Amino acid sequence: MVSQLDESRAKQILLLAPTLVGESLAIQLSNDKNNLKVYLNKQTLNNKPDLIIFYIENTEYINAIRLELIKLKERWKSKPILLIIPDNFNLVSDEILDLSSEGIIQNPTLETLKESIQKLLNGGRVLKIKAYSGEVKDQYINSYGLGKLLLIS
């Protein structure tokens, strides 16, 4: 009987995201029939969250992201963390995998996000990222050097 009660209660998600993005996602995920309750700060949680979503907007400080993930893991032991990274997250795949999160998705659609949440809540793992080779873009290959520009002018 305890397991039936546990399954019927709404899954609590702690969403760490910029204000506008967080509020929008909270509304879209909570209005869904997935039995989810999304909280934007830890003070409003009733219990420990079932899942933590960490939405990264700025990717310039990878060490700060690593440190924040360590703090989250220490605070919410054994709770899965879903890391949402932006489309312009230009790290090599190995560096992204070093972030050690149960779920990492890059620039997801709402449907992909919902699927990822359900997979993590059921004990699975998620990894949906674009490959980044770290190579120089073509736009720099055909540019003139300073010497050639001075000769031409």
Description:
The chain is α/β, with parallel strands linked by helices. The protein has helices at residues 2-8, 19-30, 62-75, 93-97, 110-121, 146-152, and strands at 11-16, 36-39, 51-55, 81-85, 103-106, 126-128. The chain has a six-stranded parallel beta sheet with strand order 2-1-3-4-5-6, with helices on both faces. Helix 2 (19-30) links the parallel strand 1 and strand 2. Mean pLDDT is 78; it is low at 1-5 and 135-144.
What features would you highlight for this structure?
153 residues; disordered N terminus; 6 helices; 18% strand; 37% helix
| Separation, N- and C-terminal Cα atoms | 83 Å
**SS element count, helices:** 6
Low-pLDDT runs: 1-5, 135-144
The radius of gyration computed from the alpha-carbon positions, rounded to a whole number of angstroms, is: 20 Å
The overall pLDDT average reads 78
Which H/E pattern describes the elements? HEHEEHEHEHEH
Q: Got a strand count?
A: 6
Report the β-strand fraction as a percent range.
Answer: 15-25%
Q: Which structural class fits the helix and strand makeup? A: alpha/beta
Shape: globular
Described by strand count, sense and barrel closure, the largest sheet is: 6 strands, parallel
Strand order across the biggest sheet?
A: 2-1-3-4-5-6
Helix residue percentage: 25-40%
